[in-house]
Amino acid sequence: GTGNKDMTVGNSGGDGTLNLNDGVMELGGNNDGAGLELRRTLQIGQNGGTQGEFNLGDGLGAAGTASFETWSTVAIGGNSGDGVLNIKSDGLLRINYADALALSSQLNIAPGGGAVGVINQQGGTIDMDGLLQMGTNTAQAQYNLTGSTGTVNVRAISASSTSTFTFNLDAGGATKITVEGNVNTAGDVTAGSVSSTVNSRSD
Protein backbone atom coordinates (compact mmCIF):
# COMPACT_ATOMS: atom_id res chain seq x y z
CA GLY A 1 0.00 0.00 0.00
CA THR A 2 0.98 3.64 -0.26
CA GLY A 3 0.13 4.58 3.31
CA ASN A 4 -2.49 6.74 4.96
CA LYS A 5 -2.85 9.61 2.48
CA ASP A 6 -4.69 10.26 -0.77
CA MET A 7 -2.57 10.24 -3.92
CA THR A 8 -2.49 13.14 -6.37
CA VAL A 9 -0.84 13.33 -9.79
CA GLY A 10 -0.71 17.04 -10.69
CA ASN A 11 -2.22 19.53 -8.26
CA SER A 12 -2.82 23.29 -7.87
CA GLY A 13 -0.92 24.48 -10.92
CA GLY A 14 1.82 21.85 -10.72
CA ASP A 15 1.76 19.31 -13.55
CA GLY A 16 2.45 15.66 -12.83
CA THR A 17 2.98 12.36 -14.64
CA LEU A 18 2.93 8.84 -13.19
CA ASN A 19 4.22 5.89 -15.23
CA LEU A 20 3.48 2.37 -14.01
CA ASN A 21 4.94 0.01 -16.60
CA ASP A 22 5.32 -3.12 -14.48
CA GLY A 23 4.44 -4.38 -11.02
CA VAL A 24 1.58 -3.83 -8.58
CA MET A 25 0.69 -0.61 -6.78
CA GLU A 26 -1.96 -0.62 -4.04
CA LEU A 27 -3.50 2.59 -2.73
CA GLY A 28 -5.00 1.93 0.68
CA GLY A 29 -5.68 -1.69 1.54
CA ASN A 30 -8.25 -4.32 2.44
CA ASN A 31 -7.43 -4.23 6.17
CA ASP A 32 -6.54 -1.15 8.22
CA GLY A 33 -5.61 -3.27 11.24
CA ALA A 34 -9.13 -3.16 12.64
CA GLY A 35 -10.69 -5.34 9.96
CA LEU A 36 -11.89 -2.44 7.81
CA GLU A 37 -10.75 -1.30 4.39
CA LEU A 38 -8.33 1.63 4.17
CA ARG A 39 -9.87 3.92 1.54
CA ARG A 40 -7.63 6.46 -0.19
CA THR A 41 -8.48 8.44 -3.34
CA LEU A 42 -6.39 8.76 -6.50
CA GLN A 43 -6.74 12.23 -8.05
CA ILE A 44 -5.28 12.92 -11.50
CA GLY A 45 -5.10 16.61 -12.46
CA GLN A 46 -6.72 18.57 -9.66
CA ASN A 47 -7.44 22.32 -9.55
CA GLY A 48 -7.11 25.05 -12.17
CA GLY A 49 -4.02 25.33 -14.34
CA THR A 50 -3.03 21.74 -13.63
CA GLN A 51 -2.41 18.80 -15.94
CA GLY A 52 -2.05 15.29 -14.55
CA GLU A 53 -1.36 12.11 -16.50
CA PHE A 54 -1.27 8.48 -15.37
CA ASN A 55 0.19 5.96 -17.83
CA LEU A 56 -0.87 2.48 -16.75
CA GLY A 57 1.12 -0.06 -18.74
CA ASP A 58 3.36 0.43 -21.75
CA GLY A 59 1.96 -2.28 -24.02
CA LEU A 60 5.07 -4.45 -23.68
CA GLY A 61 4.26 -6.79 -20.81
CA ALA A 62 1.75 -9.58 -20.35
CA ALA A 63 -1.86 -8.75 -19.51
CA GLY A 64 -2.30 -7.36 -16.00
CA THR A 65 1.41 -7.02 -15.23
CA ALA A 66 1.07 -3.26 -14.63
CA SER A 67 -1.61 -3.18 -11.94
CA PHE A 68 -3.11 -0.37 -9.85
CA GLU A 69 -5.56 -1.36 -7.12
CA THR A 70 -7.61 0.73 -4.70
CA TRP A 71 -10.67 0.54 -2.45
CA SER A 72 -11.73 4.13 -3.07
CA THR A 73 -12.53 6.61 -5.84
CA VAL A 74 -10.33 7.43 -8.83
CA ALA A 75 -10.95 10.99 -10.09
CA ILE A 76 -9.61 12.13 -13.48
CA GLY A 77 -9.60 15.93 -13.75
CA GLY A 78 -11.32 17.99 -11.11
CA ASN A 79 -11.95 21.56 -9.96
CA SER A 80 -10.95 23.00 -13.38
CA GLY A 81 -7.95 20.69 -13.68
CA ASP A 82 -7.14 18.45 -16.65
CA GLY A 83 -6.52 14.74 -16.12
CA VAL A 84 -5.69 11.85 -18.43
CA LEU A 85 -5.57 8.11 -17.75
CA ASN A 86 -3.87 6.04 -20.46
CA ILE A 87 -4.29 2.26 -20.25
CA LYS A 88 -2.30 -0.08 -22.51
CA SER A 89 -2.66 -3.82 -23.08
CA ASP A 90 -0.73 -4.77 -19.92
CA GLY A 91 -2.54 -2.25 -17.70
CA LEU A 92 -5.06 -3.21 -15.02
CA LEU A 93 -7.12 -0.76 -12.94
CA ARG A 94 -9.06 -2.47 -10.16
CA ILE A 95 -11.42 -0.51 -7.90
CA ASN A 96 -12.63 -2.86 -5.19
CA TYR A 97 -15.84 -2.92 -3.19
CA ALA A 98 -15.15 -2.34 0.49
CA ASP A 99 -17.01 -5.31 1.98
CA ALA A 100 -16.46 -4.55 5.66
CA LEU A 101 -17.53 -0.92 5.22
CA ALA A 102 -20.25 -1.85 2.71
CA LEU A 103 -19.11 0.98 0.43
CA SER A 104 -18.57 1.11 -3.32
CA SER A 105 -16.46 3.71 -5.09
CA GLN A 106 -16.45 5.61 -8.37
CA LEU A 107 -14.34 6.04 -11.44
CA ASN A 108 -15.09 9.73 -11.85
CA ILE A 109 -14.12 11.35 -15.15
CA ALA A 110 -14.20 15.16 -14.99
CA PRO A 111 -15.93 15.88 -11.70
CA GLY A 112 -16.72 19.55 -11.25
CA GLY A 113 -17.25 22.51 -13.55
CA GLY A 114 -14.32 23.49 -15.76
CA ALA A 115 -12.63 20.10 -15.46
CA VAL A 116 -11.51 17.99 -18.40
CA GLY A 117 -11.08 14.26 -17.89
CA VAL A 118 -10.03 11.66 -20.46
CA ILE A 119 -9.51 7.91 -20.49
CA ASN A 120 -7.63 6.45 -23.44
CA GLN A 121 -7.82 2.66 -23.31
CA GLN A 122 -6.08 0.41 -25.81
CA GLY A 123 -6.51 -3.12 -24.51
CA GLY A 124 -6.00 -3.63 -20.80
CA THR A 125 -8.63 -3.91 -18.10
CA ILE A 126 -10.82 -1.75 -15.90
CA ASP A 127 -12.56 -3.85 -13.26
CA MET A 128 -14.65 -2.07 -10.67
CA ASP A 129 -17.61 -2.70 -8.41
CA GLY A 130 -18.90 0.85 -8.55
CA LEU A 131 -20.17 3.73 -10.66
CA LEU A 132 -18.56 5.05 -13.82
CA GLN A 133 -19.43 8.75 -13.48
CA MET A 134 -18.77 10.94 -16.52
CA GLY A 135 -18.96 14.72 -16.39
CA THR A 136 -20.63 16.77 -13.66
CA ASN A 137 -21.49 20.47 -13.61
CA THR A 138 -20.60 21.08 -17.31
CA ALA A 139 -17.21 19.35 -17.02
CA GLN A 140 -15.95 17.62 -20.17
CA ALA A 141 -15.56 13.83 -19.98
CA GLN A 142 -14.15 11.67 -22.78
CA TYR A 143 -13.71 7.87 -22.88
CA ASN A 144 -11.80 6.60 -25.93
CA LEU A 145 -11.68 2.85 -26.49
CA THR A 146 -9.38 1.53 -29.20
CA GLY A 147 -9.60 -2.02 -30.52
CA SER A 148 -11.54 -5.05 -29.30
CA THR A 149 -9.13 -6.61 -26.80
CA GLY A 150 -9.90 -4.46 -23.76
CA THR A 151 -12.11 -5.33 -20.81
CA VAL A 152 -14.36 -2.87 -18.96
CA ASN A 153 -16.56 -4.03 -16.07
CA VAL A 154 -18.55 -1.51 -14.00
CA ARG A 155 -21.60 -1.68 -11.76
CA ALA A 156 -23.39 1.30 -13.32
CA ILE A 157 -22.88 4.29 -15.61
CA SER A 158 -23.99 7.88 -15.12
CA ALA A 159 -23.07 10.18 -18.01
CA SER A 160 -23.91 13.86 -18.50
CA SER A 161 -24.60 15.61 -21.80
CA THR A 162 -20.98 16.83 -21.81
CA SER A 163 -19.68 13.25 -21.98
CA THR A 164 -18.52 11.33 -25.04
CA PHE A 165 -17.67 7.68 -25.69
CA THR A 166 -15.56 6.96 -28.79
CA PHE A 167 -15.10 3.38 -30.03
CA ASN A 168 -12.25 2.87 -32.52
CA LEU A 169 -12.83 -0.52 -34.10
CA ASP A 170 -10.33 -3.13 -35.23
CA ALA A 171 -10.89 -6.43 -37.06
CA GLY A 172 -12.49 -7.88 -33.93
CA GLY A 173 -14.88 -4.98 -33.50
CA ALA A 174 -15.03 -2.87 -30.36
CA THR A 175 -14.23 -3.29 -26.68
CA LYS A 176 -17.45 -3.83 -24.75
CA ILE A 177 -18.41 -1.95 -21.61
CA THR A 178 -20.13 -4.48 -19.35
CA VAL A 179 -22.57 -3.04 -16.84
CA GLU A 180 -22.91 -5.73 -14.20
CA GLY A 181 -25.48 -4.04 -11.97
CA ASN A 182 -26.19 -5.02 -8.39
CA VAL A 183 -28.21 -7.92 -7.04
CA ASN A 184 -30.18 -5.42 -4.92
CA THR A 185 -30.82 -2.97 -7.75
CA ALA A 186 -32.97 -3.29 -10.83
CA GLY A 187 -31.84 -1.17 -13.77
CA ASP A 188 -28.63 0.10 -12.21
CA VAL A 189 -27.86 2.52 -15.05
CA THR A 190 -28.64 6.22 -15.48
CA ALA A 191 -27.64 8.37 -18.41
CA GLY A 192 -28.13 11.85 -19.76
CA SER A 193 -27.77 12.81 -23.40
CA VAL A 194 -24.41 11.14 -23.75
CA SER A 195 -22.92 10.98 -27.23
CA SER A 196 -20.91 8.16 -28.75
CA THR A 197 -18.84 7.78 -31.89
CA VAL A 198 -17.90 4.53 -33.63
CA ASN A 199 -14.91 4.68 -35.95
CA SER A 200 -14.28 1.80 -38.33
CA ARG A 201 -10.77 0.47 -38.72
CA SER A 202 -8.83 2.14 -41.48
CA ASP A 203 -7.03 -0.89 -42.94
Description of the structure:
The protein is mainly β and 203 residues long. It has strands at 7-11, 16-20, 23-27, 42-46, 51-56, 66-70, 74-78, 82-87, 91-95, 105-109, 116-122, 125-128, 130-134, 140-146, 151-154, 156-159, 163-168, 177-179, 195-199. The strands form three sheets. Strands 2-5-8-11-14-17-19 form a seven-stranded parallel beta sheet, with no helix packed on it. A six-stranded parallel beta sheet has the order 1-4-7-10-13-16, with no helix packed on it. It is globular and about 50 Å long.
Look at the helices and sheets and give the structural class: mainly beta
Q: Count every helix, treating DSSP H or I runs of 4 or more residues as helices.
A: 0
Q: What best-fitting shape do the alpha-carbon axes yield?
A: globular
N→C terminal distance: 44 Å
Whole-number mean pLDDT: 89
The percent of residues in helical segments reads: under 10%
The main pleated sheet reads as: 7 strands, parallel
Spatial extent as radius of gyration = 16 Å
The stretches of 5 or more residues where confidence is low (pLDDT under 50) are 183-194
Q: Numbering strands along the chain, what is their spatial order in the largest sheet?
A: 2-5-8-11-14-17-19
Count the beta strands: 19
Strand percentage: over 45%
Succession of helices and strands: EEEEEEEEEEEEEEEEEEE
What key phrases describe this protein's structure?
19 strands; six-stranded parallel beta sheet; mainly beta; globular; 203 residues; single chain; 0% helix
